[in-house]
Amino acid sequence: MGYRARSTTIRRPAAGEVAVSRGKVMGVIPADRVTVAHPQEVTALQERVRNTVLKRYAPATIPLDELATAVFAVELEPTSVWSRSELRTHKQAINALATRFDELVPGLREALRDSYLSSRAVGGAWSA
Fold first, then answer.
1. The pTM is what?
2. Using alpha carbons only, how large is the chain's radius of gyration in Å?
3. Distance between CA atoms of 109 and 101, rounded to whole angstroms?
4. Long-range contact set of residues 100-106: C-beta below 8 Å, sequence gap at least 24
């Protein structure tokens, strides 16, 4: 099954399209709330990522930008696109995409993951 190229592009958001407000959960735990002006664009991007896996395209037929988007979503914030159950169900297809990405851009996935994880609090502490 071959991948069909899409004519969609990801555009950089203009000022005011994404807002981050700081608050507290249960009045104690610091938390950020992200609000987007066009949630339908977020939903469309989530569907593109999901379809890259669900339609089981051959990894070699997927354009690098689509492949990177799918791999990074799983690597960094999987619950923004997948449930834990879905990650287990589609593990083989997700791993095939990651392997293909690593062939095209060796070391980038690991470096990005390490960078992302190092920016989070470690050792069980709350991030601020």
1. 0.67
2. 17
3. 8
4. 100/59, 100/60, 100/62, 100/67, 101/67, 101/68, 101/71, 104/64, 104/67, 105/64, 105/68
For 84, the token pair is 């834990």
Q: DSSP 3-state assignment of 19? A: strand
* CA–CA distance, 112 with 117 (Å, rounded to integer): 9
**What's the pLDDT score for residue 128?**
47
The token duo for 11 is: 């555009």
**Distance, C-alpha 99 to centroid of its chain:** 16
Could you write out the DSSP letters of every residue in 85-108? HHHHHTHHHHHHHHHHHHHHSTTH
Q: What is the mean pLDDT of residues 120-124?
A: 55
